[in-house]
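The following block was generated as part of the benchmark described in Methods. Ligand: 3-phosphoglyceric acid.
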Amino acid sequence: MKKLSDLEVEGKAVLLRGSLNVPLGKGGEILDDFRLRSLLATIQNLTKAKAKVVIIGHLGRPKGKDEKLSLRPVAVRLGELLGSEVQFFGDCIGEDTEAKVQDLNPGEVLVLENLRFYKEEKENDPRFAASLSRLGEIYVNDAFDVSHRSHASVVTLPTLLPSAIGIQFEKEIEVLKKLLDNPSHPLVVIVGGSKVATKAALVDKISKVADTVLVANLVAESIKKDNIVLSNPEKVVTAQDAVDEGLDIGPKTIKLFSSYIEKAETVFWSGPLGKVEQEKYQEGSRKIAEAVIASGAYSVVGGGHLDAFLGAYGFRDKFSHTSTGGGALMAYMTGGVLSGLEVLKK
Ligand code: 3PG
């Protein structure tokens, strides 16, 4: 698999598939720019090498063109973070887009409009991928978050251009591989979050490598409801009490979970322990975050709501690695194939 440093990019148009899918507030404001900040290293590497940087990506799940999901505000925020101009163009394929790209000078950065405004992106339409390929001479994928999706810009575009993995994507794989293959023990895994069926499956798979798996209320209920037979039930510790029928863990559970966390050498935490979008259900996740930080364990956290929550409390930098992935992180940790990674290996 090629890395950025293996490519000769000077003067060339580089199509950079980025993680641009940021959470938006009711007024369309960017609630958390962690994914954009994670993309800066690759962008700066390319601009320094005098590439013409053309960033492509998706935002949300639009059905056709939807101004509320335009990437224009993302381009503005990237410009602020980089401290230099980032241009924006309101389409991502076609002659006008090609002309815009041709006007770029080496070292300049351009963000194109949301790929998912075309249904062909999700349908992995080869003609759509071919149209994208006409915009650049090299493809770089730094979008770990969407690497589990077989979409045109993720799996077909890299077959049409010389391709490499971006800096953040590479770091994610390195950290997660180490976590799965060679963790320091005790390894304590904390499983919460809202996609409970996916999480219930994670509990069993991860119990094969973990010493203890701490499970929040709703995920525990889903394990029971779906009659999931645990291969290592002795390693699975479920919540003992709840606030408002599982919308947060209660004080007994905080104490119990913390007693495992304080002895941990490695912690992997996926998904908040309550409905942290509401302040009254944040207590459990906040106390557990504090316990993980105090433990001094090597800590990896991930998943959309948990990321934003930790960011809001200023906790994010206190963890060893915060993943930019949600679904992709789950897919990787449960042994699933990341199609966007496999294609880069070919
Ligand atoms: C994510 O936020 O997990 C990725 O950007 C993928 O988005 P999706 O679930 O809409 O495909």
